[in-house]
UniProtKB/TrEMBL annotation:
InterPro entries documented for this protein: Glutathione_S-Trfase_N, GST_UstS-like_C, Thioredoxin-like_sf
Protein name: GST N-terminal domain-containing protein
Every GST N-terminal domain range: 1-82
Pfam families membership: GST_C_7, GST_N_2
Amino acid sequence: MSSPITLHRRLALNYKGLPYRTEWVEYPELTPLLSSLGVQPSESAASPPYTLPAIYDPRTRKAIMDSYKIALYLDSTYPDTPALVRAETRVFHAAFEHAFDMVLRRHLRPLVLHRAAAVLSPPSAKYFLETREKALGFKLEELSPPGSAKRVQDWAEVEKGFSVVASWFEAAGDGRLLLSGDGTLTHADTHVAGCLMWLRLVFGPESEDWRRVEGLNGGFWKRYLAGFAKWMDTSR
């Protein structure tokens, strides 16, 4: 299955130049696979016990779940590769993940959750729809119906969120396209890029909705994503 978080971990592995193989997993297979690898389940009440991304490193025989923990593991285990979370940025990264979710990612969910099922295989789509609709108590297509006042409001919140995130880059005053400002990637950059790649996948690269996203903030997001071209091979 594909999600913004699995996409940005693969971006990170490409950036570090580490060899890897992606194992495609159907939603119903996720818990038995990760538990068999010895992955420690999440202790958060707000999260399922097993989620993606997760990696298994055959060299160390360690399995890690959670994108931030994976970034820290890769930095410490492979110190000769470019760092994703430099020690002096750990406070920034902890704050960033919360802020990014609050100002943007949570506002995207009503627009994309139902459409996300359409890009999944039949077994995963069935599981995805059944579990989300059971949790919500209604059909996913009712979250933000096309042509509804709710959808207009949802788009307004999304556009506002993108503007807030764009303002974080603008605050540097140096025209940067990456949060580090020195041409190196950070965990936060891969987080943002993974979200954009997922939206392009779910909306469709030629769709009006995707064109709307990449044109926001004077086309900033189109330029931002173009900067990741050399790390964007997620076919492995």
